[in-house]
Write a structure and sequence with these properties.
Layout (H helix, E strand, L loop, with lengths): L6 E5 L5 E8 L3 E4 L6 H7 L1 H11 L3 E5 L16 H15 L4 E6 L3 H10 L4 E7 L5 H7 L1 H7 L9 H12 L6 H14 L2 H12 L14 E6 L6 H13 L3 E6 L8 H13 L20 E10 L2 H8 L1 H21 L3 E2 L10 E4 L2 H16 L5 E13 L2 E3 L1 H12 L5 E4 H7 L5 E9 L8 E8 L2
Parallel strand pairs: 3-4, 3-5, 5-6, 6-7, 7-8, 12-14
Antiparallel strand pairs: 1-2, 2-4, 9-11, 9-12, 10-11, 12-13, 14-16, 15-16
Amino acid sequence: MSMEPQIRYCTTSDGASIAYATMGAGPAVVVPPGVHSFSGLLRVIPGYRAICAAISAAFTLVQYDGRGMGLSGRDRREYDMNARLLDLDAVVRAVGAETFALYGSQFGGLPAMAYTARHPDRVTSLVLYNSFSSGERFFTESAGGRWNAALESVTVEQWESVSEAIAARSMPADAGPDYVRDMGTALRETWEPADFLAHRQAAREIDVSGELAAISVPTLVVTTVTATGGAGIGAASRELATTIPNARLIRVTSRWAGWDERDYATLVAFLSEHTPSAATADAPTANAPAAPTGMVVVLFTDIVDSTALTERLGDAAFRTASRALDEGMRAAMREAGGTPVEGKVLGDGVMGVFTSASQAIDAARRCIELSAVSELQLHVGLHAGDVIHEKGNVYGGAVNIASRVCGLSAPGEVLVSDIVRGLAGTSAGVEFEDRGEQALKGIDDAVRVYEVRWRE
């Protein structure tokens, strides 16, 4: 199973942009973030990949980065409990999960416990892995927390050295120097140093011990016998298992290379036992609309000069940027009332279909705005006509013409065919500049195209 899930974006009720990704199929298991971006954990830690593979084999695993960290937007930097719960709520709304399980590891356990206590009707079960009831307890009782505190005064000035020191202390001795280096890199990719300190201070002030007794759902507390956090982690796990009603404790033997097979089986069996059957569960994609057939407006996008960008940015950086833009555009198309096409399209862009021209033009505007904050520019073209929906894709002459119109557009420009202009009329709140009739490759008749200009 691929450990490189597609990144999507959603927006919280207070305007933060949150990156999330899903793996697998079935009822949702949602993973609130701890200190690292989920993308870094998947890349570096074998044990984390193994846990994700075990869960996503039977469920839809939903991972996300909180505001101000990792792949999420950096313009909002509130890290208190209220902000963390807003992030979680936005993600479960985005995937359409009415009920779901929560899996909280270390600091990710804090919002998982608070959300479960406050929304018992939505959480089917709770898993807590090496977690604790308060940030202060971690910083004062665990070896990792006490040791890392000494680094705070030099974090901003010596972020690379500090991040690798944190990685070295938090990983087991058998991880090896390459993995320690990679984990330090992952931490730097997740945080700017000042934001890391702000997140750490906010975590120190969070205490959910007063809410433990209100957790009414079945809870599995997992603690690692060889946890690098030291004896404090084990004691904190025992406290959780004792205080949370209907909780039970299991111990696993490793957090680096992975658990024993029986431990994965225990985890999946616990989640399955307390999850509604697939026939009645609200799977994250249950409400996703099917692409319309017949007469539709087709929006076609393509990344400008992707080959040269790959050479300039490097393959990994280009793939990260293009995946983020891809998922952002898919979300934008849905928000505008359309349906992004899941199948592969020509080029490196995204195609969507709409039942109205004004929706499609609105989606085109949203896509251009997303590209404006990315390193990647877009060609965008729209045409309308009959299509056929088959196996996650749409086909027909209208798709071909939309692709050709897209190819005519300059970077950052939206071009539409005369049919789309006629359908939009004055309802789209835009102006159209006539670009004349254009000969399109593979199309017998010339097509008149127009540039879309948004009114000031």
